[in-house]
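Human: Respectfully, please carefully check these tokens:
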Amino acid sequence: MKRTIIAVLSLAAGLGLLAATALGQIGFKQDERMLVQKYKASTAKFEEGKALFAKGKFGEAEKKLRECLATFEKHADAHWLMAQIELKRGDVDAALVSIESAKTYFVEIGQLYSYTHQEMMNDLRDQRARLEESVRAGEDAVSQLRSQRPGDMTQTEINKQQGAVEQDKNLIAQIDQQLRNPIPQTMTIPASYYYVHGNVLFKLKRYQDAVIQYQETVRLDPGHEFASNNLASILFAAGQYQEALDVLIRAEANGVKINPAFKKDLEDRLAKK
């Protein structure tokens, strides 16, 4: 299934949106801007590593991922992909560290995104209040100038004040547009993270722990072919034939391709009980 072999980059998309829009917004703080810029720079390296991984060039991919993490240590997707490379070369303990780091950092950076968005919204509200005060002061100044005897200088000052008022009103309109954007919730860890975690735990022969990870994968992505089949296989090996069959039936209902011989074997075993 395509979704199982393509990196799930919801976090990258979220912070990418932050970089694309928030950096240009009024009130975005310098330290947060620098954080996003570092994330963007590291993501360029991650994308190179992901492309190399897809071509089977795992050594070169790992080099790019390490460059990515040197720039931004908490790049969750880089840890996620690193876990897969380490798993392929049989370094299961390192893969476990990487996938656990991926989950931790995904949640942490997701929370940061939500928090910084809230901070930005608060700053925008403060700036809006200051701009409204500036508009009122400007309009009062225009009224006073109009009450004076007409003259070239008076009209020039009126035009200047009116221009400043219009500029402030335009900024208020921009802020109002930004304030209509909802504050994002903390983002959910992708199904693919749980799937890789399950694979690592399976290699470590921690089968019940692997079951939990595969179950979460399928809960988040009911059409996840490999997680469904792996889950059913573990349950089968544990003698939990009905549970294994239930997994296959649900998977099939969600369009997952299953092994019909495996399903038939489960049905035959249950029929003999």
Notes: Residues 1-28 have pLDDT under 50 and may be disordered. The CA atoms of residues 128 and 231 lie 54 Å apart. DSSP finds twelve helices and no strands in the chain. The domain at 191-271 is CATH 1.25.40.10 (Serine Threonine Protein Phosphatase 5, Tetratricopeptide repeat).
